[in-house]
Amino acid sequence: MNVSYTQSQQFFSEKRVDGGVASRQFAEMYQSIRQQTINLTVSLSVEDMAVQSMPLASPVKWHLAHNTWFFEKYLLARYVKDYLPFHPAFNLMFSSGPSAHFARDQRSLITRPSLSVVRSYCTHVDNAVLALLRNMPDEGYPILELGLQKEMRVQEQMLCEIKHLLGSNPFHPAYVSKPLGPSEKVDGLKMTELRGGMAEIGHPGLTFCFENELPKHRVFLNPFAIADRKVTNAEYLAFVNAGGYSETRWWMEEGVEWRKKEHVRAPLYWRRLDDAWHEYTLHGLVPLDPNRPVCHVSYYEADAFARFSGARLPTEFEWEFAANSIIPELPDTPVLLDAAAGKTIENVFLHPSAAGTSKGLKQFFTDAWEWTSSSYAPYPGVKLKNDEMIENHERQMVNQYVLRGGSVVTPAGHSRISYRNFSPTQMRHQFTGIRLARSIY
């Protein structure tokens, strides 16, 4: 397999410091991120980690092994002389992509190896990687960084899938014992007008990014208005109470069929109990908070609500232009697994927060990813690849829409203005929300 790297994936070799300083820094980064993944599993039972609640999810046990597989296959097998894999079958069992041995919806059939063996696999590979980092060739560092970035992405994916698994349980078990407190009041939604014009879109390529963020290019935007915050539960509840889920005029035809087939009447985790709406969260079942952002809605639902509101969803280019028009917010997401700082999954909040009453554009990188009206496609000038790559977003660029921003479960440091998340139109288990936009004529 031929592997190539973008310019942004070459910067580690340029920044290495003599005397082993860089190696120690990368070792600390590796240990911290890998420990973060383990910390996410602390409150889970063995049974929780062995099953998948839907075809597009994966068992937590599989995620642990798959993250480890990447480092064994692309680092240890390449740069450790005469390296013997932990188990030769794992290369097929825990791989992903077009050549994967197991389809995603069959991963819960892998009851063996046991969880204890998978944990031993993680420890074995971690020790070998840390030993390799004492004297790894420069060309290994871009692979290391890519693997760690992929693992942070999986950490968010794990939390979304854990929530779906526990949220499917009739007892609504809490993943985090810390209770959610009341949120602050939110001001009325305001639309901010932006003049548009030529906009620089994409990542400059000087630090790490995924290939789907490249190349940086220019697009022309007509004047538009964009909401100063995300849509709240109260605003979405007005849509529900007005019969929005039965009014065909708000919905795309495919959305109507999806709604009927899946019997959808509200966002994924809303529950109607004793004539009152509740919401399942990672902190358990709580009364629906009117001030928090609506979350876990599909593209169909987001688009229907926008039409109901006399608005539309922003394009991904409008979103990026708006985010660049303000001083970028530092991602206000918990450092989920920073063991050195003493922060664990038990002392953070894992649910979207209210926007508050501050003025101006806000919530771009917090709480929930925002649906855009942009189909997920390559940027202009991308050279298409025909071989299987370590990281190849191109193969997924079909029947999906772009999500922008970040969510409350996005790991710190893994959110940026140019980041392009993506999802099928019907998907709701990610922390997905809504920001409205309007055209100005």
- Rg (C-alpha, Å): 22 Å
The CATH topology of the largest domain is: paralog of FGE (formylglycine-generating enzyme)
Tell me the β content: 5-15%
Number of strands: 12
CATH architecture of the largest domain, please?
Alpha-Beta Complex
Using the coordinates above, name the CATH class of the largest domain: Alpha Beta
List the domain count as a whole number.
2
First-residue to last-residue Cα separation: 51 Å
**What percent of the residues sit in helical stretches (DSSP H or I)?**
25-40%
Biggest sheet strand line-up: 10-9-8-11
Integer average pLDDT: 88
Q: Which ranges are low-confidence, i.e. pLDDT below 50, for 5 or more consecutive residues?
A: 1-19, 329-343
Order of helices and strands: HHHHHHEEEEHHEEEHHEEEEE
Major pleated sheet: 4 strands, mixed
Query: How would you describe the shape?
Result: globular
Give me the CATH superfamily of the largest domain.
paralog of FGE (formylglycine-generating enzyme)
Q: How would you sum up this structure, described in words?
A:
- A hairpin with a 2-residue loop joins strand 6 and strand 7.
- The protein folds into 2 domains: 161 residues, Up-down Bundle (Four Helix Bundle (Hemerythrin (Met), subunit A)), CATH 1.20.120; 249 residues, Alpha-Beta Complex (paralog of FGE (formylglycine-generating enzyme)).
- The strands form 4 sheets. The protein has a 4-stranded mixed β-sheet.
- The protein is α+β, with helices and mostly antiparallel strands and 441 residues long.
